What does this fold into?
Amino acid sequence: MIPGSPRDHPSLRQSFGFAIQGARIAWRGERNIKIMAGFAVFAIVCAILLKLSAPEWALILLGIGVVLGAELTNTAIETIVDLVSPEYHPLAGKAKDVSAAAVWVLSCLVAAMGLVIFIARLVDLLAIGG
It folds into this structure.
């Protein structure tokens, strides 16, 4: 086979299988994924109760996807760093810390976005009801 040819790439079905396998591995082994999934469920329940508009839903779902995707990427980076640097090295620690910081920054901003959306919706509902 020629490297890079379509034959040495997994099928679409296999690719989805690998992605599901990766999600399972992350779910089983990463506490933060479970915490973030809990916040995602909470945000979805709030969105249902507050009857968000389509654009508001889109922002909430985009935020959930961005944070979960960032956490999965962080997990992959940490795994690779652990593979290539099993003993502590300052650069390995720096890579892991910066990767975790990226998730933290995104999480804070997405949480702020959610608060803006939910608080604005609550104010609208209270104004209509009052």
Notes: The CA atoms of residues 36 and 49 lie 20 Å apart.
